[in-house]
Design goal:
The chain is an alpha/beta fold. Helices cover 18% and strands 29% of the residues. Strands 9-11-14-17-20-23-26-31-34-36 form a 10-stranded mixed sheet. Strands 2-1-3-6-5-7 form a 6-stranded mixed sheet, with helices on one face.
């Protein structure tokens, strides 16, 4: 029996605000989350997830998962770094490992290892260092592999790597496909439409630069134009939109306007005109009509992003915005290049946003910001979720209250 163990380390904080509300391996990097990539490509008989303690109950509730339980590990264990992108090629390299061997990338970051469960006691530490795995004294094998270090790497990979194409190859091999309906104009091979998706005449789909996957239950209405590589999640409605290369839309989204090289994680709305590019949007986000982000500076210099209390130069020319779960943006909001919006913010007005808006704030740049009262923020979250027939559970409410507590220092500053 072989157990898969996926863990997160201290660098999960480099992915805030998204990782306030989820472990780092729950981030989408392509059509699949980092966890799903590992689960679907690495053979195993059982799985144990390790994460920060306050996330445990929600993870158990959402996925019926075994979380932070060392007693469930025995014998040979496949240990996977939750920041590692497990592609098909990387999975093949992991399959060649023997007990006591670790696969590392050229930067020396752990990708995965095969170890005896008795050596994994350090996984119960409340704050795991990024080099803590080295105490096991494993034989290191270096290979080309991606281990994410910052959130902005995901939009870059969507555009510059095969993360979407790789996932579509896996998903299309397991799903039942149907042909494009009459009246849908298609270009190139690699258009995958899962049974149960509905695409109306007048929609244009181009797979000339990469594949397109449209999941069951998705609905695409004209005059939508979709360019691959792109992924449209289950029950997502794309309404007269321009879906540019590198776009990943999770489940149950409402999308219009123009989206490029962006993850919209799921259950979020951007139903009207406006542009979002080279960005990462969390769950239960509402983006008002004509709200637009900048993803390229006028002087073509590299974009700087707020991370953990400091502004870091990404070294990238195109970086858009990062919007945390349960945040709401009114009509005509202008998001500055590299803007970071926290959890459960409410922003309105046509002024350019600051580089960083801490979680649970309400207002705009001209009038200033006040604290978004916790109970009111939770009530809004509950109302939006109920519109999609999803209940805000007690565990999820407790999580939001914990995040409010964790982000108090941001608001004070």
């Amino acid at each position: 029996m072989r157990t898969l163990a996926i863990y997160e380390d201290e660098k999960a904080h480099n992915f805030l605000p998204m990782t306030y509300i989820r472990p780092v391996y729950e981030l989408r990097c392509g059509a699949l989350t980092l966890r799903q990539k590992a689960e679907m490509r690495i053979p195993h008989d059982a799985e144990v997830l390790f994460c920060r303690g306050y996330l445990c109950e929600v993870m158990r509730e959402r996925y019926n998962a075994i979380v932070n339980d060392l007693s469930q590990l025995s014998g040979d264990t496949v240990l996977v770094n939750g920041r590692a992108v497990i592609s098909a090629d990387v999975a093949n390299k992991i399959a060649e490992l023997q007990n006591g061997e670790a696969l590392v990338n050229p930067d020396g970051e752990l990708v995965a290892a095969i170890v005896d469960a008795t050596k994994l006691g350090w996984l119960c530490n409340p704050q795991i260092g990024s080099d803590e795995w080295r105490q096991m004294n494993l034989r290191e094998i270096t290979a080309e592999a991606i281990v994410l270090d910052y959130l902005w790497r995901i939009p870059v990979l969507l555009e510059e790597s095969n993360v979407i194409s790789d996932d579509i190859a896996l998903l299309s091999s397991q799903a039942k496909m149907s042909s494009p309906p009459k009246g849908v104009l298609t270009y190139g091979d690699g258009i995958f439409i899962e049974e149960g998706a509905r695409i109306y005449g007048g929609v244009v789909i181009s797979a000339e630069d990469g594949p397109v996957f449209i999941a069951s239950g998705a609905s695409i209405t004209p005059p939508t134009f979709i360019q691959g590589p792109s992924y449209i999640g289950t029950k997502t409605h794309v309404d007269g939109a321009k879906i540019r290369p590198g776009t990943v839309l999770g489940p149950v989204c409402r999308i219009g306007g123009e989206v490029e090289a962006t993850v919209i994680h799921g259950y979020s709305n951007k139903h009207h005109d406006g542009f979002i590019g080279h960005s990462y949007i969390g769950e239960w986000v509402n983006i008002g009509a004509m709200t637009t982000c900048s993803d390229l500076k006028n002087n073509y210099s590299s974009v700087r992003v707020w991370v953990n209390g400091e502004v870091i130069d990404t070294g990238e020319l195109k970086i858009g915005c990062f919007i945390g779960d349960h945040s709401k943006l009114g009509i005509g909001v202008m998001l500055t290049t590299g803007a970071v919006i926290g959890i459960a913010c409410n922003i309105y007005g046509a002024e350019m946003t600051p580089k960083f808006v801490p979680s649970f704030l309400w207002g705009n740049s001209e009038e200033g910001f006040t604290v978004h009262e916790l109970d009111k923020a939770i009530a809004t979250a509950r109302k939006m979720m109920s519109r999609r027939k999803v209940e805000l559970t007690e565990a999820e409410e407790t999580l939001l209250r914990k995040v409010f507590e964790l982000t108090d220092c941001e608001r004070q500053k």
